[in-house]
Amino acid sequence: LKTPLKQAATSQLVLTERQPDCQPLTTPPKPKETPPADPWTPTSNLKMLISAASPEIRSREQRRQLSDSSSEVLQTKHCLQEHLLGDEYEKSQPSRKEKSLGLLCHKFLARYPDYPSPSQKSYICLDEVTEELHVERRRIYDIVNVLESLHMVSRLARNRYVWHGRHNLPQTLQALKKVGEENKYIQQIQMIKKREYEHEFDADGERNEEVASSFGSSEQSEMSFVELPGVEFRAASVNGRKYKSLRVMSQKFVMLFLVSTPQIVSLEVAAKILIGEDQLEDLDKSKFKTKIRRLYDIANVLSSLKLIKKVHVTEERGRKPAFKWTGPEVLPNTQDTKLEATSTTCSPPISESIPSKEQCSKALFPSKGKQNFTRHSSLIKLVKSIENDRRKIQSAPTSPVKISASMYLFLTFLLETSFSLFLSQMTAEEMQMKCALSSPEAVPKPEPSQQPALSQPLGVCPASHSSVSPVILPHPQSGVSYAIYLHPSQAHTVTTYSPGFMLQPLPCANVTGIKSNNSKVFNKITTEEGDTQRGPDEPTKSLAAEERPEMKSETSSQRCLKRSQVLPENNLIKRRKSDEESLDTSLTFFPSGYLIPLTHCTHGNKAECSNKEKAGVCSLQHTAYSSPITGVIPMPASELKTVNIPAFHITPLNIMLSPNSIAAAPVLSNSCLSSSSTSSAPNPSSSALNFMLQHIGLIPAGVQVPANPVLQHVPVSSQSENVSHSSGSTNVQEGKVIEFTFYSPINESNFVFSLQPSAPKEPQEPQAVTENFFRTPGGPNTEPSLSANSDGTQRTSQGTLHIPQRKLEVSED
DNA sequence: ACGTCCCGCCAGGGG
DNA sequence: CCCCTGGCGGGACGT
């Protein structure tokens, strides 16, 4: 049996012949993607409203007439054609495209409001749907299953679903992201890419080991469905271990997007990961193919939901289909822990015991003693609705604008800060004022006597080195601020990917003298396309326009000033006065080196500790050590003023966080509450961070550093507290961990990432560390691992930093 | 020729 | 036993 041949021949012909009549010449032979025909674009809102108002009535009405919503449009579209032809060849034979799952999904979605009022639940009867949409039942299942995976619908019983709309989406995505992080998908992706790059299998045992350690470490993540409190599966049958494949797959697919930093996932990689997770068996060709096919199904639905969009990733190997996340940025874990969506492993696939509902709920609400009372559904509902309200206000579902805007601000802030440090016009008084304003006691006032800028190179720094060594800088006030100096040569090597940002004033050692217009140089690769409806575009553009190297110093500092005035309470932007010497050149040329500042916990912690809930976290901070780490050179504060490494400029970036803001940030209190969990909280700024790091060259493109909001930063911690499990690999135990903390005043949260050299070398030799930390083209076995922890607990992941650089290009269809 | 993915067989299982 | 579910993959369509 074959798929019935389509009567394409005729219809095709018909269409081609008709077209010229309606629209001369230019009209494409096929109806194609004639936008006006889209039933879901202009009309959809109306339709949604209608259907929202009275779905039943509408459907009945529709049924009576021999046209449904879709064919209505089609008819309209082909109205003329029909006339011309004169015969009633049932509507123009839908081409394959018009039967696509995506289109069907659109039709399906058009029937229900995105945000149904909670009071009146809308139910979905599969029979009705199939009838009205003129599709086989089978197809609807595909759609519904994916929707179910996002908790946009949930099954009540046979044939019966409830429509939730996008209400749950934020939470779902958040949960998925979290689980995705726990599953270490980033590493897996890297692993796959790396292996892929290494030309085929080398049939080595080492490969398997890698895979094993990477994949194996993801525990029993196999067939688990991520649920949300309150949206559990009814109908125990559905809870059965089977029949979740598509749902689970869908979720995992989404996770990949949420976790990876350019939020682009190629089908190939996705398929491999999804397969690899189930069983480490070698790539079965057919299995792979099937997986891909499913992924297409899922992708179609997700596309209809506008969560993803098809793009193409062009690598050396050629053009590969991929999808880009276009859904909302996932908020950090700002929710109450108790309510937080929990990933549950309801059904261990192998185990023969069908998971009882009890088990599920147990997994849903990890009971920690008395927290159980929270489970009461009414309570949950209450808080949930509050949450929803807050979310509405804040940002989420309707417009990602706000988040993006804050991201923009944050990035701007980072850039400006780094630049303005050189350009700083800030007087001592201003600084003092600001310090006093923000947190007089936590942050010691600047030295009354600002030391004059020293201009001699620091003796500590191996000036002879052409490559740069990491440098540690004590904070002038607290004496504990650290910074790392990056090797500039990395900067231009890195294939950067700009996730929609037109940021270019980042280091590029090779490009000197470029004044403006360098945005083109740096942003060849952009996914930004016709997303005109998106808010972020505005700030993005203005940023690109503003952030030019020759930007006026006044402008910069003024803006910084302004910003800090706007948020006087919430953030403290302290800028160290730096010498003017290094200033002038960096105006026109890019600084060739970067000094990444480590914010240190300068405050007395009183603020945090005063908060009763945060007590636990406060204790965490004590696990942090501030001892200088290998290869990092401590410098006396007195020498801070001038770090004049030959041929390089140092851009100190000092972002402080004020205790006040911490206390106010919900994120932090949350991470505090869940301090025991190893879960890492997603942070919207993580992509910003990653972007920055990648751009700078700290980490290779593709690698991402999970960012977590933390209460306490751990500037430098030494040793094995932070070293964890590690599947037998020995390269970690010796590793020192460097942790960075950034604080985003905009998001009112700070986040930490840490670097851990896996193959530490000479402890006292700075150069060695440099090599460990930063990719050294020739250096094998120097693969630091990245990790991030939101708490003081150990959490070291085995990332591979040494990823082959590849041209990555993303293009539209 | 290859990327996409429609179509529907058929097995599993609930009612 | 009927019918809902949904895994699965052949092979058609699109480019």
From TrEMBL:
Pfam family, one: WHD_E2F_TDP
GO process terms (BP): negative regulation of DNA-templated transcription; positive regulation of macromolecule metabolic process; positive regulation of nucleobase-containing compound metabolic process; sprouting angiogenesis
Domain E2F/DP family winged-helix DNA-binding positions: 96-165, 241-327
SUPFAM superfamilies for this protein: Winged helix' DNA-binding domain
GO cellular component: RNA polymerase II transcription regulator complex
Polar residues composition bias: residue spans: 782-800
Transmembrane segments: none
Family the entry assigns: Belongs to the E2F/DP family.
Protein name: Transcription factor E2F8
The species this protein was found in: Promerops cafer (Cape sugarbird)
Gene name per UniProt: E2f8
